[in-house]
Amino acid sequence: MKRSVFFQPSDGWVGDLIPFEKDGEFWLFYLHEVRSDPKPGTSWNLVTTKDLTQFADQGVSLHHGSDTDLDFNAYTGSVVVDESGNHRLFYTGQNPRNLGPDGVPLQLVMQATSTDGMQTWVKHPELTFGPPDGFESGDWRDPFVFRDEAAGQWRMLLAARHSTGPERRRGVIAQCVSDDLMNWRHTEPFWDPRRYITHECPDVFAWGDWWYMVYSEFSESFTTRYRMAKSPDGPWTVPDLDSIDGRAYYASKTAERDGRRFFFGWIASKEGNRDDGPWQWAGTMSVLEARQNADGTLGFAFADELVDSFWEDVPVSLAHELPTRLNVPDGYTALVSEEELPSQFYAKAVLDIAPGTTECGLLLRSGPDGDQSYVLRLEPKRGRLVFDRWPRTSTGDAQWHVSGDIPFHIELERPCDLSPGEHTLEVIVDGDICVAVLDRQVALSTRIYDLPAGRIGVFAGEGSVTVTELQIRQRTDN
Q1: What is the pLDDT of the chain when averaged over all its residues?
Q2: Where along the sequence do coiled-coil regions lie (predicted)?
Q3: How do residues 194-222 score in pLDDT, each as one tens digit?
Q4: C-beta neighbour count of 234 within 10 angstroms
Q5: Which class is domain 313-474?
Q6: In the chain, ranges of CATH 2.60.120.560 domains
Q7: Which pLDDT score, from 0 to 100, does residue 396 have?
Q8: If you ran DSSP here, which 8-state letter would residue 197 be given?
Q9: Residue 20: is its pLDDT beyond 90?
Q10: Among candidate residues 217, 245, 224, 229, the one with its CA nearest the CA of residue 159
Q11: Do residues 109 and 124 make contact, with C-beta atoms less than 8 angstroms apart?
């Protein structure tokens, strides 16, 4: 069995990630999710990587507390280097038995330090603090600390909620400031849109002339978004495409190396390991690299290191017949490979889309004639990439017994520019994970459980598309 390119521990799942770059290596702390009853406390585990393709599981890094401690669950936070060169870790402490004034488990900011290069952590319970008046006690989490050199102080951002106002629009990124990383004072909110339930896992970084704020929202979307500004004090503007990925990719936080910015998040699993199961909290780690466009907006794609790790060609019949034009002005056609593909592969298709085309794209794990397949569909008239499956949910045995009120997999659509001309669709399939990238700008991740194997195909509907390039590659583990 080939080694997965998406990290997941053998004894659990990857929750929120806290990435940190150290001497050219990424130290990826994450909330270690164990699905058992009774549920154990949550610790910070650690995985390290130098090349973003091979991951070393280091096990538990920050242990959670006992069932009577304030940090029975050690939730999301951040790591910084203090003025002495030591590492200081900020995290959320929570215990279901420790209730706040509003009757829900209290969330607290807690600290730990390391003087041996993050090999061991010493907790400092005396530095613990909770939300001030005016904020709900059950939402005071995910402390993100960064240095504001212009102001000469440390700033801490927190996912919080106002205690008054419309119930589902109290979300705010609260803010505390400090001179010494130990004593914190509450100040005005960092961002206060009064729009959604809450904005989790805040992250802020500078890149060139721009500042970026990243957060994951509790809304109808449950997705990770970003905002742009010319200073860390805003005002924050909304880019045309403000999401990092779709519904399946969540709680993404960032780290920089050699001038490159990487987003580390998790692809959610689904209940019952089935396509129609509800999304679950936590899953498998996935890495996207951000690319800064000329106007400051961000595009998202696979890191070159990941693409290059797929180096062995997989021969497919379709690739021998290029360029291939699919021309169906008022119909649908598909070409499907003769061969089934391995369970892990990288695919790259270059599609030259003619004006007026309704749809085109790739079939994944398809049957011989394309009538049963996962579908990555480009829809130029609607300006979007969607993930679909055909047939969709069956409601009976007859051929017309299919769910007709779901146009594609809900929450798995991404707005994109599909102007006439060439577009590049890249895909990595690895077991039950599928990640697609369009034009190195737009990413879409999902799970694929129900069809474990099949062929690859290209298709067009109501228009014309020319397939000018099709590559399929796999990894060969040493």
Answers
A1: 94
A2: none
A3: 999 999 999 999 999 999 999 999 887 88
A4: 14
A5: mainly beta
A6: 313-474
A7: 58
A8: S
A9: yes
A10: 217
A11: no
* Alpha carbon distance, N-terminus to C-terminus of the chain: 12
What is the SS3 string spanning 69-134? CCCCEEEEEEEEECCCCCEEEEEEEEEEEEECCCCCEEEEEEEEEECCCCCCCEECHHHCECCCCC
pLDDT attached to residue 403: 54
Q: Are 251 and 223 in contact (CB under 8 A)?
A: no
Phi and psi for 319 in degrees, rounded to 5?
-70, -15
Instruction: Give ∠ CA 282-78-150 in degrees, rounded to 5.
Output: 140
**Fold observed for domain 13-307:** Tachylectin-2; Chain A (2.115.10)
Provide CATH 2.115.10.20 ranges for the chain. Answer: 13-307
| Digit-coded pLDDT (tens) for 312-370 | 999 999 888 899 999 999 999 999 999 999 999 999 999 999 999 999 999 999 999 99
How far, in Å, CA of 284 to CA of 433, rounded? Answer: 9
Q: Is the pLDDT of residue 460 over 80?
A: yes
Q: What is the DSSP string of 375-412?
A: EEEEETTTTEEEEEEES--B-SSSTT-B--S-SSSTT-
Q: Closest Cα partner for 248 from 226, 287, 222, 272? A: 222
- Asked if residue 293 lies in contact with residue 303, where contact means CB atoms within 8 angstroms, the answer is no
Q: Is 38 helix (H, G, I), strand (E, B) or coil?
A: coil
